[in-house]
Amino acid sequence: MGHITLITGGARSGKSSHAIALAMNHGAGRRPYFVATAQARDEEMTDRIAQHRKARPSEFTTVEEPRDLAAALAKLEGHADIVVIDCLTLWVSNVMELCPPDQMLLREADSLAAALKRVSYPSIVVTGEVGAGLVPENPLARRFRDLLGSTNQKIASAADEVLLMVAGYPIRAK
Questions:
Q1: What is the CATH number for 33?
Q2: Is 18 among the catalytic positions?
């Protein structure tokens, strides 16, 4: 069973950068993988993805998987020494697009937590903290906020450590 680190925080708080730094400082082997959940659906997101790729050290092998993270993790068994998943925020949005009932999405989050616990390599999971602001004015945004919050709790419960990023600095929550 690999060590699980969950990194959460607000937008531009340094979550991804810290996840990459932790993975690069990981001593065992040199086979880091990066599982990306983003999908380039417009020009702005295409540019964001390109900037993330450019900033990522060349040692990383990137796997693009917008929805089936548990299967992606299983496929990396025996290949990866450490995996960064970036990010659950987009993953929840991607799964919501399929219009599953909330309980089905939360079962997917349970499956992901179980998969993270099952793999032999350490995992660093990045997610956004969207519940600290105002209550969204529309039902879809409220549903997203609630499902991401529940997903974050499930992964945090499985995690060995949870870090909250604030202005580029990690604060240990667990």
A1: 3.40.50.300
A2: no
Domain assignment of residue 48, given as a range: 4-172
Q: At what angle do helices 102-118 and 88-97 cross, to 10 degrees?
A: 140
Question: Of the candidates 32, 37, 120, 39, which has an alpha carbon nearest to the alpha carbon of residue 84?
Answer: 32
The DSSP symbol for 30 reads S
- Average pLDDT of 72-96? 96
Q: Which helix (H) or strand (E) holds 112?
A: helix 102-118
Contact 154, 109 (CB under 8 A): yes
pLDDT in tens, 117-149: 999 999 999 999 998 888 889 999 999 999 999
- Which of 3, 18, 26, 52 is catalytic? The answer is 52
DSSP 140: H
Q: How many domains does the chain have?
A: 1
CB atoms within 10 A of CB 168: 12
Cα angle, residue 163 at apex, residues 10 and 138 outer, rounded to 5° = 30
